[in-house]
Amino acid sequence: MKVVFERPRALSDVTTHYCPGCTHGIIHRLVAEVIDELGILERTIGVAPVGCAVLAYNYLECDWQQAAHGRAPAVATGIKRALPDRVVFTYQGDGDLASIGTAEIVHAANRGERITVIYVNNAIYGMTGGQMAPTTLEGQVTATSPRGRDIKQAGHPMRMAEMLATLPGVSYLARVAVNKPANIMKAKKAIKQAFMVQIDDLGFGMVEILSTCPTNWGLQPAKAMEWVDEKMIPYYPLGEFKVPGEVK
Amino acid sequence: MLGEKVLMKGNEAIGEAAIRAGCQLYFAYPITPQSELPQYLARRMPEEGRVFLQAESEIAAINMVYGAAGTGARVMTSSSSPGISLKQEGISYIAGAELPCVIVNIVRGGPGLGGIQPAQSDYFQATKGGGHGDYRLIVLAPASVQEMVDLTILAFDLADQYRNPVMILGDGVLGQMMEPVEFKDFEPVKIPKPWATTGRKGREKNIINSLYLDPTKLEEHNWHLQAKYREIAEKEVRYDTYRSEDAEVLVVAYGITARIARTAVDMARAQGIAAGLLRPITLFPFPTEAIAQAAEGAKALLTVELSAGQMVEDVRLAVNGKRPVYFYGRTGGMMPTPEEICREIVKVAGKEVAE
User: Which of A218, B220, B280, B288 sits CB 3.0–4.6 Å from B318 for a disulfide?
Assistant: First the structure.
């Protein structure tokens, strides 16, 4: 019998701790598929963040280092500088990358560090119980913005992809979503590109992935997928912000 | 420059010693009074085909150390007091994940931005933890530029041997002063690192981690760390003594202060006071036994530091109430003269030594 669908070799055969409807599982699978397709499992080192994906090291079969909150790009820099022929990626959430780790991500990108960043933006702090993130949308109710995010008091949601795309060290930067099959296909392509620019020694590669958090958004999983279309994409437009050999 | 004596600044001597010890990567951030070290290595590391990288912050630098140390490479970073405070988060993770590395602190006066003059007021931070959690650094305190070389080389070996961060605790004087140093021929110790994350080719995956969500596992991990620290305390204590055999007043001082105290001991001896010196070289592990034994023969102890009194607490614990322990310190970048320390020795002798 012909096998038409199987677990990627890079994806561990374990049950994850993620909530029902959470899209981390989809993103893990996409990263695993890309690692398999590029044949790089045995020379890839992942850097896990602090946040919901802290246990990512249990779910992908490559070597891993677990980093302090926000510091994954600095840890990845240390690994890559020590082992320039290995493939190094970070997997970070929006609290990790866009709040506490802004200095590390900006400077890793600016140095054109040959690393790949998988940036999962679900507009909320998931692991700690649904507090406001720098990416939380205006008016969005969270545990620490109970009346909805007030931009006068808390500032504006941060568009990291647009910000980082201005840096010359960045080779590839895209924003994708994983809320429906067509978007998932595009997301995988972008993830592959972000790995390819590292492998081809072109520069820093990052994919911002709009993700869901049904538990902390207080929505059914299916509704959460719709919320990405209705609320997130209008503020966080999808697309490629930087592709190799081109400055937009 | 093998085998011959060269005149070097302390900060530069640490840099050259790190290269001799096989340091493959060095992550820097400028701060006075240690900046000669990054400047030296910015030139020397590329000459040797190794990595020099100026990080965006002390925080980034120590996390780069974490990443590189996790690959099994020999790695170093350096800073001075305020910068070392910034590194504490990373140091705690490094201790928790048991990554070998060398961290240099060329101490200046605090608290806060403090000043840029020499101090020893980071003793608590260096020896008692510094960051969160139950952990220890191995802390080495050189007292000369030659010892900065020798202890830097030792630091890399101890780090690998115990999978533990090692701190070189210097001060602004040692960092800035020039002395003749000799680089002896030696083979850096090579310890296998099967735990390193280098890509999983030919083996199961490796994970560098300090997270243990199951409290039974975290307690187990902590007991493992404590057992390691006990082993370090048993095997790695280093100290030096000077005229201490018959000392009635035993001065305890480390680093540059011990150099000044040594002259003060001679001055006191010339006045007929049986003074001696015990100089801890390892601050963790602390020479507790050696001090307890030396205290048996002494009438009193005098601890001298460039602080308001930090190491003196460990001296008191070592002496355990059996002898009076006096303290003399200067802070804020002020240095005691030999005369000042001698005066303190005379005072202590007047109170505690029967005519």
Answer: B288
